[in-house]
Amino acid sequence: MNFNLTELLRYQIALSLIKGIGPKLARNLVAYVGDVKEVFKEKESTLAKIPGIGPVVARSIKSSDVMARAEEEIDFIQRHQIKAVFYTSDEYPKRLSYCEDAPLLLYIKGDNYLDGKKVLGVVGTRKASDDAKINCEKLIGDLAIQFPDLVIISGLAYGVDICAHQAALKNNLNTYGVLAHGLDRIYPSLHRNTAAQMVEQGGLITEFVTQTNPDKPNFVKRNRIVAGLVDALVVVESGVKGGAVITARIASSYNRDVLAYPGSVSNELAKGCNYLIKSNIGGLIEDAQDLMNSLGWEGDKNHNLVQRIIFKEFNNSEEEVLYDILYKNKEMTANELSLESNFPVSKVSASMLSLEFAGLIKSLPGNAFRII
Question: Residue 369: how many CB atoms within 10 A of its CB?
């Protein structure tokens, strides 16, 4: 990075660190004085007269030590090959740039393919049920067949978020995790390995400088970035007070499409999705085809969503037949599989055990099986 660019970045980072100045006010301030450098060079008396600034904030600008802190951050991002993208840059994500409260500055570790043709947010509860994980994996797997350049955005949290990222990686899609802290850490630390893979196949994004803890208010700020980066947001499973519902409301306020999986009225983890659907914030979907119909996405007509591409050789033709039947029906008993396949129950049971060991299906009580 040459001297002039480093100097400019120092002012950009410093502006983002001034207390009392949010993204909207900062944009107005830069527009008023004409340049980010001038914010720090302008007289205090002049700054105080700018609408929204006043004498207190003007004094904060002139007396702040944010320049030294900005230099520390520049040293970190240069050592760790992190991109710092200011809102005026051509590299700033186009979708996010249209949101009036979008961050002044984004730190991106990895590639910057955030302006892809189709960008989908997938979020939900940290306590995801097996059904939610299955729905999430199947949705992303099916969409990957139709749209191999699809980008998946989520928040790297437990539950639905990490399921979405891992499903994207498994299906060779770029995926980005939006963080509620600086890039000097990964939270939760359990997701460190997945985060490392994402840097090679997407990236990590934050508006926070290093030494920023993942405190509660930061997650709400993080949610608005998730909402602003996407064409549409899918809520797989969420309680009424879940962060996913907050993200959905923000996405709706940004005129993004919101979609949600319905659930049982007695399930606390489904009440958030049901609320979104009932209040007309989110449309109801049950699979990838519903999403495509709702968003008007036309996929590859040479692929049928019920014909999943399996990058695994089956041990025999019986396994392939049984897997295809189960894939179409999602969940079946051994007897039902036997009737539809004309295989004896003993052969069905042996084949399903092999498929379970391969990680393609899951066994359930009552000698039943479910696709993964």
Answer: 27
Angle of helix 334-341 relative to helix 345-357, nearest 10 degrees, comes to 110
Tokens representing 66 are 């944010």
Q: State how far the alpha carbon of 340 is from the alpha carbons of 224, 320, 349, in Å.
A: 48, 14, 14
* This prediction's pTM: 0.81
Strand residues in 14-95 grouped as ranges (E): 83-86
Q: How far is CA 255 from CA 135, 152, 228, 249, in A?
A: 25, 19, 9, 10
Instruction: Tell me how far apart the alpha carbons of residues 362 and 331 are, in angstroms, rounded to a whole number.
Output: 9
d(CA 113, CA 93): 9
If one counts every other C-beta atom within 10 angstroms of the C-beta of residue 203, the result is: 21
Q: Between the CA of residue 168 and those of 71, 165, 202, 331, 353, what are the distances in Å?
A: 36, 5, 10, 23, 26
**Tokens coding 258:** 């919101």
- Span 209-242, pLDDT tens digits: 999 999 999 999 999 999 999 999 999 999 999 8
Tens of pLDDT, residue by residue over 108-140, are 999 988 998 999 999 999 999 999 999 999 999
The angle formed by the CA atoms of residues 171, 173 and 178, to the nearest 5 degrees, is 125
| Residue carrying structure tokens 């008993």 | 333
Which residues of the chain carry a pLDDT beneath 70? Answer: 1-3, 300-313
What does the alpha-carbon distance between residue 173 and residue 166 come to, in Å, rounded to a whole number?
Answer: 10
Q: Do residues 314 and 293 touch, judged by C-beta distance below 8 A?
A: no
Q: How many other CB atoms sit within 10 Å of the CB of residue 1? A: 12
Distance CA 290, CA 34 (A): 47
